[in-house]
DNA sequence: TTTTAATTTAATGAG
DNA sequence: CTCATTAAATTAAT
């Protein structure tokens, strides 16, 4: 099930968005309490309170989490799995230090929710920071094979002490990056790509 | 955490390498000169140059005009279009002093390219300075919707005389800022946010 | 020094 | 899988 706000985030659609869009594109009168002038900041602000609830998915979720509201269990963060997992096998010292600092001032539960907040609201996986060696190995493998099969990925995962999933994602992102660079160099230097087949397109 | 060079210490490296090699080349015999060491990045690297170029649309003209096709163009400094611009209207004294010193030894042209290199040693977009009105409008829109869709962004871009890209980046940075501030206030006053509804959440 | 515009990339979800 | 998009973590200009 999708988290509340998730749809909003991915489609950029919400009440505020729609109304704002209408206001911005058409100067129609609205039943909303904000006009295009207010949107554009051309009107004197009389109240600081927006007519619509701001769209802040991560805050919404944090509120739910902190309050432990079970009616929104669809928003729950798979905290546990991250807690004990290997995700932070290569966590950086900075974050470790932060956590250690917390220990002195907060309860375990509080620390948990702080850590939870450090990652994203749905328990978005903490961003993996590959070290130099990992990157180098991955790049070298990529040079030879940008579509490594499951066996190679597993092998890499084991050798580099990473989840196979991280490897997979890395290769996906790496392929996307390569593709983008190709697109861009074509755009930047069309004459090269046009001449590469020996065609005389410009004379 | 995987230490640098840790993989070299692995005892099963050779056997593993062999299978990796087989896996990597899959079905075909390797006509390439890659060894397993090179695959795993254990060989001396001779180039530190990234395989792909960054996206620098505003440099397109320069790249094409000045450099033409150059596989290392990401390292190059664009020469033409920013020469006469306002970007360096207020250069700092330190830099000025350096330049004066240089005067004794370098030609005007060399000095120019030195200056250019200082500020353009990487092809980074010149920092946009939003004016007060632009900020105000952006902030007002942000209050209602921190994820404006493409239509609103385009509209804003037109109304504020900015690239849509600037708008997009602004909102990204603005969201990050909001989130950061939220995180910080929770860190500073966890009891407030946790007890704000008077609930006993932890017992 | 602080703030924030710009960049790179890991993670995510839809197609 | 691709592709577009997002947030995290930076870098660098002011």
From TrEMBL, chains A, B:
Q: Which InterPro entries match?
A: HD (IPR001356), Hesx1 (IPR043402), Homeobox_CS (IPR017970), Homeodomain-like_sf (IPR009057)
Cell compartment(s), UniProt? Nucleus
Its cellular-component GO annotations read: nucleus
Under the heading PROSITE patterns, the entry gives: HOMEOBOX_1, HOMEOBOX_2
* Span of the signal peptide: none
According to the entry, every stretch annotated as the Homeobox domain falls at: 121-181
Its protein name is HESX homeobox 1
SMART domains to which the protein is assigned, alphabetical:
HOX
């Amino acid at each position: 099930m999708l988290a509340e706000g998730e749809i909003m985030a991915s489609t950029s659609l919400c009440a505020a968005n729609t109304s704002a869009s209408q206001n911005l594109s058409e100067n129609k009168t609205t039943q909303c309490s904000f006009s295009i002038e207010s949107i554009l900041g051309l009107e004197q602000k009389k109240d600081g309170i927006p007519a619509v609830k701001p769209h802040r998915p991560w805050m919404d979720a944090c509120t739910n989490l902190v309050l432990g509201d079970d009616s929104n269990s669809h928003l729950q963060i798979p905290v546990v799995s991250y807690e004990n997992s290997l995700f932070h096998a290569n966590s950086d010292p900075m974050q470790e230090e932060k956590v250690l600092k917390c220990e002195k001032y907060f309860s375990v539960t509080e620390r948990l929710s702080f850590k939870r907040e450090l990652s994203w609201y749905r328990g978005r996986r903490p961003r993996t920071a590959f070290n130099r060696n990992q990157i180098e190995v991955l790049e070298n493998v990529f040079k030879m094979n940008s579509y490594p099969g499951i066996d190679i990925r597993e092998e890499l995962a084991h050798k580099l002490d990473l989840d196979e999933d991280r490897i997979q994602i890395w290769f996906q992102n790496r392929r996307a990056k390569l593709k983008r660079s190709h697109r861009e160099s074509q755009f930047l230097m069309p004459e090269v790509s046009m001449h590469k087949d020996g065609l005389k397109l410009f004379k």
